Amino acid sequence: MRKKGHKDQFDRTIISQAIAEGLTMISADTKFPLYNDKGFDLLKNE
Questions:
Q1: Terminus-to-terminus CA distance in the chain, angstroms?
Q2: In the chain, at which residue ranges do the beta strands (DSSP E only) sit?
């Protein structure tokens, strides 16, 4: 079974780019934290 993540292709693309380039993102998106274990650095904007 596939892990639940983002259905939006654009969001998956920017997450992939941030991981590849070691960038930190700021977002209030509730699905972005699902990628923290992949090396994704997120500052949550609440």
A1: 30
A2: 24-27, 41-44
pTM for the whole thing? 0.74
Question: Residue 16 has which token pair?
Answer: 């992939």
CA distance 17 to 27: 15
> From the centroid of its chain, how far is CA 22?
12
- Distance (Å) of CA 8 to CA 20, 32, 35: 19, 11, 14
Look at residue 2 in the predicted model and tell me its pLDDT: 53
- The answer to whether 28 and 42 are in contact (CB under 8 A) is no
Tokens 């904007």, residue located:
45
